[in-house]
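Run log, item B.
One chain of 118 residues. Sequence copied directly from the ordering sheet:
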Amino acid sequence: MNDTNFPDTMQSRHSRTDIPAHWPERTLVTGMDSYYLTKSWKGKRQYVVQRDGGWCRYCGGRGVQADHVVPRMRGGSDKVKNLVCSCPTCNRIAGNRVFRSIEQKRAYIRRQLGMDTT
């Protein structure tokens, strides 16, 4: 078998968008990585939200999600030292971008929100 049998992208069943073939397995309904439905992830998310007092580490708003400082899709780990509490808006703004530090990530998000970065 040669590598030409494995495309760089594959057609999503649920949209007309090509997605990278190396992305983790997705659930059929949401397109979400199935890892985020596991007990392991739910426990880590709960721990991180509790550890950070339920406040978004980027904007200071109410945080209910765990965000990977270095995105999972970019090689970031699922260890709690790579996770911070985040609100859905900041998590979405950060997306899959990679930053040199959490401070740089926070500054980027706050600029996108129109907040003072000092």
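Observations after the first pass:
- The two ends are 55 Å apart (CA to CA).
- The longest helix spans residues 39-51.
Flagged for discussion on Thursday.
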